[in-house]
Design a protein that fits this description.
Among the domains are: 65-134 and 359-533, Rossmann fold (3-Layer(aba) Sandwich), CATH 3.40.50.740; 156-332, Dimethylsulfoxide Reductase, domain 2, CATH 3.40.228.10. The chain has a seven-stranded mixed beta sheet. It is α/β, with parallel strands linked by helices. The longest helix has 19 residues, at 77-95. The chain starts with a strand and ends with a strand. It is built from 26 helices and 28 strands.
Length: 704
């Protein structure tokens, strides 16, 4: 049989890169970047090669597993659906709706079937104990969008194709290809921006992005908020405001209030807090405000700190005050083919209920994952007796993972919808593995809403799934129907069951396209396997604002209070080292470490430490060191270099594959250690309860 080439979008990170998959006799031979893809234009990162490894991984689960006397037994789908739904039904009948908690991991939004199928299941469960990776990394972005523009999914992104000045804080797009900003081939984008302007990186580490930028400034972890507020103050005090067409969407009195709020902000104090000279702060602000067009981008280093929500809000404010909001080359709203904002009026779902232990607030129907373990331990009040995990590994990806692992062991029942026996799913009673990767259809439902260019692309399965496998959409559909059947035969339940029986993934996708901005349909999209170019971003502020008065809300009370609280804070300077995370191009959180192609090369799970900090502790390059925090300790190899700010250490996120009971051969051979055995579940942003991953106080010593 001759070779054939098929096309799809790589779903292993947010970049939406198009790939060519070459098959021979039905087997994957090679994977290349698709040069005809209108979005990525041939670019791929090393992770795309991992699509082949994922498909052929011998550790990937393909049939439902049931735990019997601590051993795993393969069972049929019919048995799995029946037994799982029966157990869930019994638990809720006995203990109420909130007896079941749900945790959704990051891969959920990379899988079309989960995005469109899981909500039916979650709504049928009707629990208030819902958790997800959102509160571990991005809630601050959604809160700012909801309070300022009217909906949590109204998320503006930098127009990188046309900007002249890109200011990056707490993000590393050379590695992430975006993150809350879908932008493949950051290297090329940075090069093009530098040809006409400047790229500036402010980060505690001399990151891969910083090495390609025009300039880099070290900053102390979690102090970015001070820098951003100082920049706002300079613009206000020096009367450098350039609202342009946004002026009619702004209430002038809010600018006056903001100016008065920042009167007490002292730039010399900001310099001490950040480690950046006040002259440099002026220079950074001047370059930004005077650029022909400019955009600020902030990510994990800003959104997972003590004042993360205030930091993301401040970025929006700076983009607005500088005349770079809703403007080509500035910050703009994508216009995806399928709308993810389904509301005609402003919606803010925040703090409608709280967790039982620390009274942390709900956001969009979810509680902060930082409280999951203690809520399970407090089951008499929280009512949590069971947990469903979906595409997630919270033992490695949420704070104080060891405590969560103990909490999982205390549950009456647990089920995981996942393709691996990993650090979290090993605690389950059932594991339900969907078809995955090259076996599933794909459309980037979420990431097109974050893309720096408007495109649309549908991918058929490259390789047929096995006959006895189920797609994730069908797993959720079957579980939902089975649960409804066990309940009282009300008119509502009968209608819901009938609707679900008739529902297909193709119908939902086709319907979304037809109702969308470009009135496409699935049949038409299938005729363009490389994707359709829908054009560059355009100004659309009037179209997206959901507040009745068509105004941007610059200063919601929550930010007013946060600014006052920040300015009144008298936090003592710690003598401890400050721990931050990092990401590697060949990895994505905890779920790419079983790929032999991606795990080749030198050890990437090590500790970056500045030479001066190492010398004080008699540490040399390659030494084994111990890191201690309030909640735990780990041992890791030291990498001594000056690419990290003095007083700061860094280790990567997503490792720790040494726990007994997992089945991940490649990952177990390269286990690394988990940064979340050090992060503190009690150390959260007070406003939202979001976990703090950057700026954790730790002690480091040489192992003897």
């Amino acid at each position: 049989m001759s070779e054939i080439t098929k096309y799809r979008t790589c779903h292993l990170c947010e970049a939406m890169c198009g790939v060519e998959v070459v098959l021979k006799n039905g087997e994957v031979q090679k994977i290349f970047g698709d040069k005809k893809d209108p979005f990525s234009k041939g670019h791929i990162c090393p992770k795309a090669i991992g699509l082949k490894d994922l498909h052929y991984d011998e550790n990937r689960l393909k049939k439902p597993l049931k735990k019997v006397n601590n051993d795993w037994k393969e069972i049929s789908w019919d048995q799995a659906i029946e037994e799982v739904s029966e157990k869930l039904y019994q638990l809720q009948e006995k203990n109420g709706k909130n007896a079941i908690a749900i945790y959704s991991g990051n891969p959920s939004v990379h899988n079309l079937g989960t995005i469109l199928g899981a909500p039916f299941f979650y709504r049928t469960i009707e629990s208030k104990n819902i958790f997800s990776a959102t509160s571990a990394d991005q809630l601050a972005h959604h809160l700012a969008a909801a309070t300022m523009f009217g909906h949590s999914n109204l998320l503006p992104v930098p127009d990188l194709h046309r900007t002249h000045h890109w200011l990056i804080l707490g993000g590393n797009p050379m590695v992430s290809n975006g993150s809350m900003m879908t932008a493949p081939n950051a290297r090329k984008l940075i090069k093009e921006i530098k040809q006409k302007g400047k790229v500036v990186v402010i980060d505690p580490r001399f990151t891969e992005t910083a090495k390609k930028a025009s300039e880099h400034h070290f900053i102390k972890p979690a102090s970015d908020v001070w820098l951003l507020l100082a920049m706002i103050k300079i613009i206000l005090d020096k009367k450098l405001i350039k609202l342009n067409h946004i002026e009619r969407y702004i209430e002038a009195k809010e600018i006056t209030i903001l100016t008065n709020l920042l009167i007490r902000l002292d730039l010399e104090y900001v310099s001490r807090k950040t480690g950046i000279k006040h002259e440099t702060i002026y220079s950074i602000t001047k370059d930004f405000i005077n650029a022909e067009s400019a955009s600020i981008y902030g990510r994990l280093g800003l959104s997972t700190v003590e004042y993360g929500s205030l930091s993301i809000w401040a970025i929006n404010i700076l983009n607005i005050l500088s005349g770079n909001f809703d403007t080509p080359g500035g910050i703009m709203f994508p216009k995806p083919a399928i709308q993810v904002v389904h509301s005609e009026k402003a919606v803010l779902k925040f703090n409608r209920w709280q967790s039982t232990v620390r009274k942390l607030p709900e956001f969009n129907g979810e509680l902060p994952v930082s409280t999951l373990a203690e809520e399970i331990f407090n089951k008499n009040e929280s009512k949590i007796n069971a947990l469903i995990t979906v595409c997630g590994n919270p033992v490695l990806s949420t704070p104080n993972g060891k405590q969560l692992e103990k909490a999982l062991d205390s549950l009456d029942f647990m089920v995981s919808i996942d393709i691996y026996l990993n650090e979290t799913t090993k605690n389950a009673d059932y594991i339900l593995p969907p078809a995955t990767g090259l076996e599933v259809p794909h459309y980037d439902y979420i990431f097109n809403n974050l893309a720096i260019k408007n495109t649309a692309k549908y991918s058929d399965p490259i390789i047929p799934k096995s006959k006895d496998a189920l797609y994730d959409f069908d797993i959720f559909k079957k579980l939902t129907i089975a649960l409804i059947k066990k309940r009282e035969k009300t008119k509502k339940n009968i209608q819901q069951e009938k609707m679900l029986n008739a529902l297909t993934l193709d119908y939902l996708l086709d319907n979304g396209l037809k109702k969308g901005s470009y009135h496409l349909d699935l049949e038409k999209l299938k005729k363009y396997p490389n994707g359709i170019d829908l054009g560059y971003l355009k100004p659309r502020i009037d179209e997206v604002l959901l507040f009745e008065d068509k105004k941007i809300k610059l200063l919601n009370d929550i930010y007013n209070i946060e600014i006052t609280k920040l300015l009144n804070s008298k936090k003592n300077i710690s003598n401890s080292l400050s721990l931050i995370g990092r990401r590697n191009l060949r990895s994505n959180n905890s779920w790419m470490h079983n790929s032999p192609s991606l795990m080749k090369g030198s050890n990437i799970c090590n500790l970056l430490i500045h030479p001066n900090d190492a010398k004080k502790r008699n540490i040399t390059n390659g030494d084994l060191v111990e890191i201690k925090s309030r909640v735990g300790s780990v041992k890791i190899i030291a990498d001594v270099n000056d690419e990290i700010c003095e007083g700061v250490i860094s280790m990567p996120h997503g490792w720790g594959h040494h726990r007994k009971g997992i089945k991940l051969d490649i990952a177990e051979a390269n286990p690394g250690v988990s940064i979340n055995d050090l992060t503190d579940d009690q150390f959260v942003e007070q406003l939202t309860g979001v976990a703090i991953f950057s700026g954790v106080d730790v002690e480091v010593k040489l192992c003897t």
